[in-house]
Input
Amino acid sequence: MRIIALLVITAVLGLSQEAARYYYSGTDLIYTCTAESDQGTSTVSVTGGDLTSIVVSSNTGTVTTADLGIPPGASITVTAAQTTWSIDSSTLTDIVVSTNTGTATTASAHGLAVAEIITISGATVDGDLNGAYAIASTPTSTTFTITTSSVGDATYTETGLQFVNSDSDLAATYTVATSTSSTAFTITTSSVADGTYILGVSFTTTVPLNSAAIWRIKRFSYDGSSNLIYQAWAGGTVTKSRVCADRATLTYR
Output
């Protein structure tokens, strides 16, 4: 007589959990179904719509995302792609400084947002203009303002004048320090300028995410000596635990 024991454990995101186990006595096959991630490396980006921003303050970066559920201890690798706007390439028209406010005009839409970091270089009329700034306002799609200090009032258009978005020091691999919700977590940064990072920012991770049905039921078939003789993918979803019999036709020896 065959004895069948059934154990059901709910699959939890981020972990390989057993959905059901069937034991068959004698020389019958033993089928074990495990729910595990079939996800490889995921890219999370502003352009992809699942990354909102990384806000750095006092060596702590707060990452805001879609509902991804990235847990503490997860590893992420951040890319901070830089774009250069320059007088030489005609992508920067000028930077006009007046009474501690600098207004930059670009030839086309810059895509920058308030609090994003830019770094100016190449200013020779007054070298104090060179440095990192947080964008104060974006009056139009082709202008933004910064707050300057000790910079002479002038219209800056000299050869070599340029600015770049982001901070290349942000690009690194981090371990998630805390998760405040399924849509936000923190990382510990070093030598990264305080500010908001949006344009050109993305990160990759191999941790299972909430954003897609990345789970499958993997069916293992063993003989009476517990030797693996067969494995195959059967259907499963991210939202429920699954029983092997619900997803595959079992045949016994």
The chain has three domains: 6-39+212-247, 42-70+168-205, 84-165. Residues 1-36, 213-224, 226-253 have pLDDT under 50 and may be disordered. Residues 179 and 185 are 4 Å apart (CA to CA). DSSP finds one helix and 23 strands in the chain.
